[in-house]
Amino acid sequence: MDLFDDLPLLTDGALTQIAPGAVLLHGFVREADADLLQTTRSVVAQAPLRHWQTPGGYTMSVAMSNCGALGWVSDPNGYRYAALDPVSKLPWPAMPACLLDLAQRAAAQAGYPHFQPDACLINEYVPGAKLSMHQDKDENDLRAPIVSLSMGLPAVFLFGTPSRKDRPQRYRLVHGDVVVWGGPSRLAYHGVAALADGDHRLLGRRRLNLTFRCVGSA
Length: 218
Ligand code: SIN
Ligand code: FE2
Prior knowledge:
Layout: E1 15-19, E2 22-25, H1 33-46, E3 63-67, E4 71-75, E5 78-82, H2 97-109, E6 119-125, E7 131-134, E8 146-152, E9 155-159, E10 169-173, E11 178-181, E12 190-192, E13 207-213
Antiparallel strand pairs: 1-2, 2-11, 3-6, 4-5, 6-13, 7-12, 8-11, 8-13, 9-10, 9-12
């Protein structure tokens, strides 16, 4: 049985409200996908993807990098945003204009005009990699939404509520989909199920996810 048999198929340009203040923009990125990917590759050529250690002593299965003024990092002392890449001690690469523009257009379409992200976390998943349920709460500015772009292999995105006890819903995210969550869903628990193997025309056996955040000042 196909893993996604119970999930609806939606066409490019469709919008699904997944929770109050949270939408899935199906196929938001179309023709520009190869350019966005090339731009992302140039960022990770400067700031390589790596597997951070968690405060709990685990090594993350997802490999991460960042662009923008601030980058999300983790080590045994905790999670935080940092202006310098802790490995190279250099500032993160600037957020490329085409990525910023995409994030702002998606936010506006989802009902969040004036989105000014200062951080973009780049997540790379290979088959079996997953992200356990968590809240994005290390940002100072919780009025701004999170904008999340998926590229490469499809994933099952789990999206719940701000209460950990509520059972999350499952959504299939494919290449070009964007999820935006803010307002009453800004602190919703979310995660990504273990990536199924496959072969994507541009990314092979990988999924890339870019999340744009407004960290703001403390
Ligand atoms: C995240 O929660 O930061 C990433 C979500 C995803 O990979 O879709
Ligand atoms: Fe997250």
